[in-house]
Structures are given as structure tokens and as C-alpha cells.
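Record 1 of the preview.
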Amino acid sequence: MALSKVDLANQVENQLPQNLVANNLPFRNIIINGDMSIAQRGTSATGITDGNTYHTVDRMKTQVITAGTWTQTQDTDVPTGQGFTKSLKMDCTTADASLGADDFLIVRQDVEGQNLQYLKYGTSNAESVTMSFWVKSNKTGTYIIWLYAPNASNRQISKSYTINTADTWEKKTITFAGDTAQAFTNDNDSRLRVYFILAAGSNSQSGTLATSWENYVTANRAVGQVNLADSTSNYINITGIQLEAGTTASDFEFLPVDMNLARCQRYYQVLADGSEQTQSMIGTGLYFSASLMVMAMQYYTEMRATPSLDNVSGTNYYRIFANNTNDYFDDFFLISPNSTNKVCDIRNQTDVSGTAGTAGFVRTENAASFLAFDAEL
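->
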């Protein structure tokens, strides 16, 4: 009897090597923008010396606690023949050879809990996950990947890898067991944090490395980590980060640029950037009254949560052209009660003057002007 198309497909799949089948699974990478190709905020940031924020490459947050000063770039140095065009580079510009006990330097990505439910954490069927990535640095030695699950018990697990050869791209693969003790909360909050540790003080290294899931202990998270901040000659490049269910690494999942950008825009999206075009169109504004200009906006894609407004203000940075008249102004603000994760209401009522009921187009008027929506974890 002839096989149906479904039966034939299943028969073929069952005869394929398991890793080949896994390689064809779409959206297997838990990490967003792991190829470092999207950088909406810009391609370079200097003078990074403290704080916990995003600077260049989308979804890659930098956390520094007095561990030197850094320049971060979206770099074009990539492993040859692997399909990558960009990497994230951290370059030390002021060294700290003697770290304080609580000092820290990390690059991390936060993952929503609702994107992790298929891992079945908190059950006996909890899935292992495997991380693969490419890395290059002048400083050889031991580095730590730390997974931290901020939840009821604040769970953690750490694994080490070694940069063996200076100034050479190397591929690393690390497998983490699943956590049978704690589930990820099913929501849009940060429920897994993936840390690339680059420097850590003694308080993070005085215990035993947490190579199995355990309740959070500061001393166990980065034992053995080298200090990348100890010389201004030091740098590190990272690209091709993939975290997927299972105990083997599949080939990196390259996404079309429009899809990759849309995934990043769930967390951050730029509406107008004067550095790309000084007179960059923003949208249509309406004078609700003579001194109140209102703009109703719909985001490019639904955002993770109601965003905040990320914008640069300055004298005459923006303008509205309405009723054949230019009205220059300095800033915007977002009205939270009228804004959601789908639409928003942005206004100016401090330095505009027009005719109530008149509409006009709004644009940037300065190369430094910038307007974006931020719903980052």
C-alpha cells in the first residue's frame, strides 16, 4: 500500500540522524540577535565605566561595577567562513588590575519566562540546554558563563570555558543540565539571565563554582574567572551565541534581517534618529490646544510591555510644520495612561504654540535628536 505524504515524511525523519533533524527546527535559539547584527542604538559607545544598561548591540546588556573603563563596538571582526558579519567587542581603555571584592564586568541577555516554558523546568523532565558561541581575545585563560534564574529561590548554575590561543577565533560549546527544582514563571518578565562574565572580584570567586543548579550563592558564581580588565591591551569579541534545548549544539540559526530586527523591536525600537538624517520624519501631530501638541503612534511591532520614552532633548531639536508655519520645540513626553504595548500618546506642552485643531508633520531638526521606545528587560 502506498504511503501518505505524512507517513513518508515521518519515515524519512525517523531515519535521519537526530542532530540533523534538530538543525531544521525553527526558532530553536533562545538568544535574540546572537549574531550581533542589529544595533539600533549605534555601533560604538565609549567611556563605559559603571552601570547596567544597553549601549550598542541589541539585547546585549553591559553591567560594570568599577572594573575598568571600556569601549564597546559592533565590530566587523568575525570568524572566517562561518556566515557572521558582526561581533560585539569590549575594549579596555582604563585598566583595573586590582579588582574590589564586589567588582564585576559582564555582558548578558535577559529572557522572558514565557519563552522558556518548553524547557519544563521544575519537573523531572527538565531539559538540558546547550550554549555555543565564537570568542576571540588577547587574554587567554578561564572564563565563566553564569545562568541565573531570578524567581522564588533565585537559582544559578555556572560553567567555565577556556580561551586557549590569543587573538584567535575559537568556538565554544557548553551544556547545562535542566533545573528540576524550580520552574520559570510564565510571564513577560526576566526569568533567565545569561551572563558572559569577563571580570569578577573576590566575593564572586571565594566559593566553589556552581556547576549544578543551586540556590543563589554569590561566592559560587564566577570561581576561576580571569580579570579581563587588568590591562588596556585587553579586548574580547563574541558572536554566534546560541542557547538551545538538548545536549548537542546545532549550527547557528541565521534569521532574515527583517525578522531579527522585529524580534529586537519587541524590546526597543527607534522612531527617529537625527544622526542618520537630520530632518527625519516622526509622524503627524495635532494641536489639541494652542499650547499642546499630541501625536498618536502605533509601534512597528507589539512591544514586551508599555515602553518608556528614550529621547534626546535640546533647543529646537524638533519641529512641527502646521498651517504653513514652523513651530520648533525641544522635547517630547509620553502619556502613560493613554499608552500600551501596542500604541502610545506622545506630547509636548511646554514650548509649542499653534492653532488648536491644526495638524502638521513632525520631524527631527538636529543631528543629535533621537526618539525611541524602550521596553527592555
